[in-house]
Amino acid sequence: MNTESRADREAAEAEWLYEHRNDPDLEGEEEEVTVAKPLAVTTSLRMTKEESAAIQQAAQQANMSQSEWIRKVCMTMAERPSVAREVAVVGPQLRRLNDLLREAREVEGNLEQEVQTLLKAAQD
Questions:
Q1: Which one in 21, 83, 94, 103 has a CA-CA gap of 20 to 30 Å to 118?
Q2: Where is the composition biased (Basic and acidic residues) (predicted)?
Q3: In which domain, by residue range, is 59 found?
Q4: Same domain, yes or no, for 94 and 109?
């Protein structure tokens, strides 16, 4: 009857494998391994919740982590200086236009309230 426990068998097998780890007759198939380049620099950036959500969604759709997606987009822009230059020029203009549009909507809302107040006063 075999009274050796599973743990004993596994320990014996591990010991045998360790003792024969350099035996060329026991080597199995070689596996090709790809080693990623070490990432040595960390960069922080600030963004709105909406921007973060858009990046997260874009990364998920690309089956990438957010870090991978951001690196890829940044490197693509860096490799295309004409586009990067256009973004540098147009970006601030777009932000200013967006700010003006937001202000116009606020004014529109205020005007609408004033008109409603005047109409109500005219009816009284």
A1: 103
A2: 1-24
A3: 48-79
A4: yes
Encode pLDDT of 44-86 as tens digits.
889 999 999 999 999 999 999 999 999 999 888 888 777 667 7
Which residue type occupies 71? R
Residue 87 has pLDDT above 80, yes or no: no
Q: Is the model's pTM score more than 0.85?
A: no
Residue 111 lies inside a defined structural domain of this protein: yes
For the chain, what is the domain count?
A: 2
Q: Cα separation of 30 and 32, whole Å? A: 7
